[in-house]
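look at this record:
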Amino acid sequence: MSMYPAAADPVTTKLTRADGTPIRVLAVDDEASLTDLIKMALRYEGWDVQTAATGHEALARAREFRPDVVVLDIMLPDLDGMSVLHRLRADGDDVPVLFLTAKDALDDRIAGLTAGGDDYVTKPFSLEEVVARLRGLIRRTAQSSLASDSIITVGDLVIDEDSYEVTRGGEPIELTATEFELLRYLMRNPRRVLSKPQILDRVWSYEFDGKASVVELYISYLRKKIDAGREPMIHTVRGAGYMLKAV
């Protein structure tokens, strides 16, 4: 997947691919009126947008169009969004995914994110929020790939920002784009307590409407992948934030 330069101003700066061509977005929802609105908003950003109304159509479009980011409804008439995502990942496609969901239960959000999605919005949502989330995903992906010193090591935990690889004790660990960026931030600040607002500002790069619980959610994902069956490296400092330190 092509990378993009990080925008200095997320509101006024146009984001493009590294070669200057428009960012490619695939919007998947069985409500044509909704995908039309998303297409209109993203084309205003100067992006190239294609749409799909079913899971099978989404998979075919993804293989042909090679999008840089996907907006994916969970409830589709054939394959559900999570099944679509599983098939994309099985094909080796690590494209960032923003889930659309009408479900409010936290369990549903957790299921979507642990399936390999990178972010979510709950219907009804504003088009401005969708654009902001997509900009955040694109910028995080770019920042992860364009770092100058690509290898970061804390104890037996290693990430390579060029290859997007993570290992602990030599064992590979698979992370989503958002999980990778969160871990990168923690590893660039070892033994430093990082507050939830700091993490939201750095990792999500936009105002998250005070939903600091998303930080707790992603920290729990990292712990399951990084610390599972090992001496923990990610620590909660009660009332202050989170800290990563070598064992």
In short: The helical segments are 32-44, 55-65, 81-90, 106-114, 127-145, 177-187, 196-204, 213-227. The first strand starts at residue 24 and ends at 28. Residues 1-12 have pLDDT under 50 and may be disordered.
